[in-house]
Amino acid sequence: MNFNGGQPVLYLKTLLRFSNRLLKRNLVKSRVASYLLKIFEKLLLRPAARILLKSNTNSQISHTEFTAYLNHQASFENLNFEPFKSPPSISIFALYLPQFQPIKINDDNWGEGFSEWTNLAGSRPLFNGHVQPIIPGKLGFYDLRNRETIREQIKLAKLAGLSGFIVMIYWFEDHSVMAESLTDIAEICNDEKFYFVFEWANEPWTKRWDGLESNVILKQNKTLSYESATKLAFSVSNFLRMPYYFKFRDRPLFFIYNPGYFKNDAVSILRDAFDSCDIDVFAIGMQTFNLDSENILALGYDESCEYFPHNMDLYTVAAHRKLLPLTIDVAIESYPATVKNVTGSITRNGIPSCFPSWDNSPRRKFQGSNVYVDCYASDFGNWLEDSINRSLDREKVGLLGLVVINAWNEWGEGAVLEPSRNSGYAYLNTLNRVVKMNE
Fold first, then answer.
1. 307-320: per-residue pLDDT in tens?
2. Among 265, 273, 342, 344, which residue has the least CB neighbours within 10 Å?
3. Residue 42, Cβ neighbours under 10 Å: how many?
4. Which residues, listed in sequence order, are joined to residue 284 by a DSSP beta bridge?
5. Phi/psi at 391 (nearest 5 deg)?
6. Of the candidates 373, 372, 375, 388, which has an alpha carbon nearest to the alpha carbon of residue 433?
7. Which residues, including other chains, have CB under 8 Å from residue 361's CB and lie 6 or more apart?
8. Which of 54-58, 400-404, 422-426 has the lowest mean pLDDT?
9. Which residues of 386-403 are buried (b: 16+ CB within 10 A; e: fewer)?
10. Is the peptide bond before 407 cis (omega within 30 degrees of 0)?
């Protein structure tokens, strides 16, 4: 039997954990099947695991070295930034998630003290070769109520070559969630001369983290009212007037996560609401949920933006399942092959985007996770360079020149530029190197 990389123990542990999950979650309804599973586990899996642990050909490798191999420590890099002689001419923004502090609604629904870190800390490998958990490095398990943490993030992002953050905001009918964090982020961005813009995550909050209509925690209405849009516009208008809120031709950018969510003419309503604040927004719709650039522009948006891994069916390459039990609902994709396909595409439109890695199993576990394997900074660098070239081509014809990286700190979805204990500063070093090439 091929255990792919000499990790039979991990494979057997995966089977054991999964069989236990089946039993605990009552997914196995048949009493006979349940007994057979217990016998299989007790008589075959456990003894086999002990035998393989003793006879493993890699047994001479120390536990530390084995763990390092398992977590791709071979790609670990220390900080190695090249200073910029002048501010980078390329505008590169990374999506920024502000959900790293306890808030009441999460306490009520998930338990006291819940934040994005809760899912990450409980993450485990789902299959042989699965790199989990991804542990934060320099910045640690931070709390965004600490303003100094935000300042450290911005300083690090600037040194690496980022131009700014696209900060997620959460507006529901008549109120904003985590409004205090927005104030902190905006003020510190201005202090540090670092650009920021907002992206409205206009979908429901759900317990499945999918924005759909089941297990809803906070509802998002399907029609945007002028009253709600006006309240939203007034709540963020002072931020959009700040010197370091990013603008295109004097128009502040405002991203919409799901432009197809609303059933009425939400873009016109939103424009009218911002007009009442004397603000002419540059509305950008994200290419999510099978909406392409043409669809989004037809809805009245000024521009569209790629939002990979959304709409990646044309480019994604499935990876070998590596002995993954077929009953586990996990899509495993090859990052290098996908990067090669997406960078070679001639049909892409809108603001170009890329992501350093992707793995939403900390949130979804084995129920619909999407995992990209073999994610290395070198391939990310190739994708980023391609995105920059596409952005420069857009600038030549008068369009908004911008590159969007998903993301700075989406730890729950494995899309992270921030330093980690797994890869160190590899992704930020790559960002710095690619931006320097275009200085």
1. 999 999 889 888 86
2. 344
3. 10
4. 255, 303
5. -65, -40
6. 388
7. 123, 126, 130, 132, 330, 369, 371, 414
8. 54-58
9. bbbebbeebeeeeebbbb
10. yes
3-state helix vs strand vs coil in the chain, percent to 5:
40, 15, 45
Task: Find, among 407, 391, 426, 393, the residue nearest to 90 by Cα.
Answer: 391
User: How many other CB atoms are found less than 10 A from the CB of residue 133?
Assistant: 20
Kindly state the DSSP code that residue 318 receives in the 8-state scheme: B
414's CB contacts (< 8 A; 6+ apart) are 134, 357, 358, 359, 360, 361, 362, 371, 372
252 and 195 in contact (C-beta within 8 Å)? no
3-state secondary structure of 383: helix
The dihedrals phi and psi of 373, each to the nearest 5 degrees, come to -105, 165
Residue indicated by tokens 């629904």: 109
Residue at 235: amino acid letter = S
* Closest residue by Cα to residue 361 from 82, 133, 179: 133
Checking if the pLDDT of 146 tops 50, the result is yes
> How many Å apart are CA 408 and CA 154, to the nearest integer?
10
Cα–Cα distance, 150 to 133 (Å, whole number): 23
Let me know if 185 is exposed, middle or buried by CB neighbors in 10 A (0-12, 13-18, 19+).
buried
- Please report, as a single letter, which amino acid is at residue 205: W
Length of the chain: 439
With vertex at residue 283, the alpha carbon angle to CA 280 and CA 287, rounded to the nearest 5 degrees, is: 175
- pTM of the entire predicted model: 0.83
> What is the Cα–Cα distance from 196 to 62, expressed in whole angstroms?
46
DSSP designation for 42: I
Tell me the per-residue pLDDT of 246-295, one tens digit each, with 9 for 90 and over. 999 999 999 999 999 999 999 999 999 999 999 999 999 999 999 999 99
- CATH of span 80-437: 3.20.20.80
d(CA 14, CA 16): 5
pLDDT at 54 over 50: no
Question: 282-287 and 251-256: which strand pairing?
Answer: parallel
**Higher per-residue pLDDT: 191 or 331:** 191
Query: What letter would DSSP give residue 47?
Result: H
Query: What is the token pair recorded at 59?
Result: 């047994």
